Task: inverse folding
């Protein structure tokens, strides 16, 4: 039986999805074939980590695995006779009540894989195409996936005659199970391929060009169908998931609602008198009007100038947060001018209401 997936990743059973992902990335980097060329143990460990993450990163697969892992049952770690049912119970019933019992078992599809790409902020906003290199189990080039030595072919299993199942009558029922001689494949490899040892798969490094759509976020997961690991004996391949890591921009900040935000400094004079100023957009610059008397922290919006929204739903907005930038030093002439200006607005006391409310007697409670 394969090792416990949680132990493989070094996390507890109550680990969050983020903790599982973090543990997987650390181990995947440590045992990646590129960092351990020729190290078969590291390659095997890398495959174990990939397999564990494939199960625990999928909520449905994890739920099924947890049920079997915790309670045992048929084929589970708890052994036969446990109070629960392991993840193989569906297979048992499907063979138990198979109509006619015809045809060998279909091999499972290949495993899904995940890789990461790092993008610049502009690339993420505009979309791009990137090259990814993925180590994965692929169809053996020596035997073309048959698992048999070149010049030979798998032969029909003599026990099940190619049906892939072994039936046994017990009273009113005919109980079917995978043929123990061929493992349900319906065929036996008498002379295995020397390259893949009869599995039909070998570890290979594949390169793909992946289209990154415009507007992706940091952590977006792009599915590339059919580029995961090849399935055994001609079964369908899994999928490849490309996770984007987007570099931060020195100007634009991505908000949770998908819009962009830019901090725009303005002078005291521009805030008081109003002005038309130039602000950055994703494509160039645009001019916006600042009304006279603009307050520090005021936000203005340019609609449709942000990144594309998912599902061709137009574009998001850019929000400009205006921050009044105060001069750190004043010349004598500026200070004199400011004193004159202050005298003209001495009737404007912004803290008067605050002080008045603070010194007012407390409101009576209960009408007393």
Result:
């Amino acid at each position: 039986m394969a090792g416990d997936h949680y132990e493989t990743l070094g996390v507890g059973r109550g680990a969050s999805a983020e903790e599982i992902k973090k543990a997987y990335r650390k181990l995947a980097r440590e045992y990646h074939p590129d960092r351990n060329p020729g190290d078969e143990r590291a390659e095997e460990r890398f495959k174990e980590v990939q397999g564990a993450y494939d199960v625990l990163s999928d909520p449905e697969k994890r739920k099924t695995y947890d049920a079997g892992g915790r309670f045992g049952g048929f084929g589970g770690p708890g052994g036969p006779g446990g109070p629960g049912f392991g993840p193989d119970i569906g297979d048992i019933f499907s063979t138990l009540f198979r109509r006619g019992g015809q045809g060998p078992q279909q091999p499972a599809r290949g495993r899904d894989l995940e890789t990461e790409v790092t993008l610049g902020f502009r690339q993420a906003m505009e979309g791009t195409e990137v090259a990814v290199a993925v180590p994965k189990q692929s169809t053996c080039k020596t035997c073309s996936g048959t698992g048999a030595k070149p010049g030979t072919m798998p032969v029909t299993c003599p026990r099940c005659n190619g049906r892939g199942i072994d039936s046994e009558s017990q009273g009113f029922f005919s109980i079917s199970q995978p043929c123990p001689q061929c493992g349900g494949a319906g065929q036996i490899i008498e002379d295995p391929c020397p390259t893949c040892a009869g599995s039909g798969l070998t570890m290979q490094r594949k390169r793909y060009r992946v289209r990154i759509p415009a507007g992706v976020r940091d952590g977006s997961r792009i599915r590339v169908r059919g580029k995961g690991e090849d399935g055994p004996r001609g079964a369908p391949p899994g999928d490849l998931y490309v996770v984007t890591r987007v570099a931060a921009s020195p100007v634009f900040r991505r908000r949770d609602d998908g819009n962009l935000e830019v901090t725009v400094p303005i002078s005291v004079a521009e805030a008081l008198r109003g002005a038309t100023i130039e602000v950055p957009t994703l494509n160039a610059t645009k001019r916006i009007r600042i009304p006279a008397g603009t307050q520090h922290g005021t936000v203005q919006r340019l609609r449709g100038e942000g990144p594309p929204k998912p599902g061709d739903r137009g574009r998001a907005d850019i929000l400009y947060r205006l921050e009044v930038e105060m001069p750190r030093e004043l010349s004598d002439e500026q200070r004199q001018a400011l004193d004159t200006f202050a005298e003209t607005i001495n009737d404007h006391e912004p803290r008067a209401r605050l002080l008045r409310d603070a010194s007012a007697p407390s409101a009576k409670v209960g009408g007393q």
Q: What stands out?
A: The radius of gyration is 33 Å. The chain has a mean pLDDT of 82. The first helix runs from residue 5 to 9. The chain is about 25% helix and 25% strand.
